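Homework help board

Subject: predicted structure for assignment chain

Our instructor gave us this sequence and asked us to write out the predicted structure in token form, then describe one feature. I got the tokens but I'm not sure how to describe them. Can anyone check?
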Amino acid sequence: MFRRPLLATLLLSAFATLPAHAVELIARGSLSGAIGDLSGTSGALENGVRGDLLGGLGSGLAHAGGNTFLALPDRGPNAVAWKSAVADTTSYIPRIQTLSLALTASPSNGLPFTLTPTLQATTLLYSTQALSYGSAPSLAVGGKSYFTGRSDAFDAGLSSLNPLDARLDPEAIRVSNDGKSVFVSDEYGPYVYQFDRASGRRLKSFALPAGFGVGTPGPTTGSEGLPTNTQGRVANKGMEGLALTPDGQTLVGFMQSPLIQDGGDGGRYNRIVTIDIATGATHQYAYDNQRSEERRVGKEC
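My token output:
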């Protein structure tokens, strides 16, 4: 399916009146994070926060055609202290929020257009395979094992790349070219999963190279770092970025921090991994932070 670039569809009429090189703020809109979403999970979480709180949507945003965008919250609200042993994470079910971002030629606040966001749907993410919840509460209901934001929902006997771990901290989302599924990357594993867009069912788990995961996973940053683990992702700094090539055949994931074996935080090289969607084959590349910094400083000078 042909898909226009993100801004081309939403802002085409606006940019038609601007010089070809110009990038300007043309509209501003807001959606209250204090409202409930459309998930039906209104029961209180362990920290007392309602389970359907819309909250923030900033982990990932993907264009899904026309005025439709898919927004990705992360592992849920954990700003309220309740249990430091699990980093105050809760049994929040990771989800996708479908939004309509309508742009109208209606001057407001000194800008030429008005942006009106509307929440259209909330899709909870789950697996039909039995997931491991570790010491976290099980969220398995009626043949569906829902993913959870709880940091202790993992099999302690396996590496953090275990695809049957229930914990999920979504960071990026991309829409398949046919529009029927989405790809989501995560910090806990790190994992890269494919979900059915309409139902939220996990369709596929992509196996990442062994060096990306930690051999001894833990529920907190302190329990996953050195000297417990000498290789793998830095705690809570997994696959932050995810892209999809224009032909829809290859995913490109970017790690937030150099791996432990690459120096961890402050290390020189961040790993990039490509994933062939059809075969699952992966390739790795190194992004040289030092060379990038040298080029940036050179331009500033």
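Reply (TA_rk): Your tokens look well-formed. For the description, you could write something like this. The first strand starts at residue 60 and ends at 63. That's the kind of observation they're looking for.
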